[in-house]
Amino acid sequence: MALLLKHENLTAVRNPAFRQYAENCLAVYDDFVRQVEQFGLPFAEEREEELCTARESLSTLGVKRCNEGAALVWGTRCGACEACRTGVDSYTGIISLMCHRNCFFCFNPNQENYEGYSHATKDWERELRQVHRRQPDLGYVALTGGEPLLHKTEAVEYFRTARSLWPEASMRLYTSGDLLDEGTAAALRDAGVGEIRFSLKLEDTAEEREKVYQAMELAKRYFPRVMVEMPVLPDRENDMREILDRLEAMEIFGINLLELCFPYHNAEAFLERGYRLRYPPYRTLYNFWYAGGLPVDGSELLALKLLEYAAGRDFRLNVHYCSLENKHFGQVYMQNLGAAAKDRTFVMSGKDFYLKTVKVFGKDISRAERIFRAHQRTDYQLDREQGFLQFSPECAQLLKKTDMQLGISYNIREFRERESVIRELRLDLEAAADFRPEEL
To answer: What mean pLDDT, rounded, does the chain reach?
Structure first.
């Protein structure tokens, strides 16, 4: 099992050149942390061991791991969430970013042209047809916002158009539920919507949430699948359990528990609630395009407790935990697809979709080169400037009888002007004797 390198375990790296290279990689992470701290929201203490223990206990209860544990499921995960893993079979659009709510955790201000789409609608029909030209066989189409039902007529037309373009696709709507009425529900059903996802707000009063529950009861009469999708606020365990109990009693299909994120603004609201950022925020650091921000400490731990609660009571309600990391899979897949074919020292991981290669440093370079030449391998290359030898996982298996320590490198392809480049994001440590290519 490869070791994720951190400052506290760098002494495990025996090779001085390897250790120096790893320190340089960690310095990038340190700089990122310093930049984040300027927002005024502090990081919490790391508690990965506690989370690992909680995840392991869930597996004994029948909770399933998906996407390398970035998603966890009690019961059944809907097809749209499955498709989200790569994003190739799914499209989610907006009419506008207008919203009658003001959620403290909303990340829409990070969206492209937020100011413009907060006051005007976009040309959603033109966009749908453009998507159809690129992806004529989509399996899932959704409409989100803002609040889509601020534009009821347009929302119905959106799905009618989508149905004409993708007759077999599954169609779903995201809404707060505040504005759903019988006529709109019927029109959306007739336009092809088969699933509606409601956002319950823990900041609402009990009376306000009751109105949303009533909207869900209305939706059950029109749509085959009714769900809730909401972030898990780490200090609201009792409220979250009450919601699970209510949804179970209502025979709702399921709930998506989202990891609460700090959206790079509104830090005061998070500080007022005593929230801190999760550390480390990412196992693999990158500028992901999902606009949600950074994970909040305690949100995942409570989500795991809620999964345990549902499993322990054998709920029929399907409970799906979607971490921030889980939302990054589609981007990594899209960027890296086909890149490994151009450089045989890389493979695209079937687990997390990063481009992965193996490296040795310092005195191990010449030793590895001799072995590769003896086996007539050509899938390796020397980077003299950075001081490492990079090679394919197949080559790495030839080093099993040595005492070398390998650097397992995670990479992503970036497109810059007229060329693409491979950028390294993370480095793990593995003994050559323990290396297993299938674990990549």
So the answer is: 96
Compute the distance between CA of residue 357 and CA of residue 410 in angstroms, rounded to an integer: 7
For residue 28, the model assigns a pLDDT of: 94
Structural domains in the chain plus CATH codes: 3-33+337-439 (no CATH), 48-332 (3.20.20.70)
Mean pLDDT of 56-68: 95
For position 416, what pLDDT does the model report? 86
pLDDT at residue number 342: 87
For residue 255, report the phi and psi dihedrals to the nearest 5 degrees.
-135, 135
3-state secondary structure the chain: CCEECCHHHHHHCCCHHHHHHHHHHHHHHHHHHHHHHCCCCCECCCCHHHHHHHHHHHHCCCCEEEHHHCEEEECCCCHHHHHCCCCCCEEEEECCCCCCCCCCCCCHHHCCCHHHHCCCCCCHHHHHHHHHHHCCCCCEEEEECCCHHHHHHHHHHHHHHHHHHCCCCEEEEEECCCCCCHHHHHHHHHHCEEEEEECCCCCCCHHHHHHHHHHHHHHHCCCCEEEEEEEECCCCHHHHHHHHHHHHHHCCCEEEEEECEECCCCHHHHHHCCCCECCCCCCCCCCCCCCCCEEECCHHHHHHHHHHHHHHCCCCCEEEEECCHHHHHHHHHHHHCCHHHHCCCCEECCCCCCEEEEEEECCHHHHHHHHHHHCCCCCEEEECCCCEEEECHHHHHHHCCCCCEEEEEEEEEEEECCEEEEEEEEEEEEEHHHCCHHHC
> What integer is the mean pLDDT of 299-318?
98
pLDDT exceeds 90 at position 291: no
Q: Does the pLDDT at position 1 exceed 90?
A: no
Global confidence as pTM: 0.95
pLDDT, tens digit (0-9, with 9 covering 90-100), for 124-144: 999 999 999 999 999 999 999
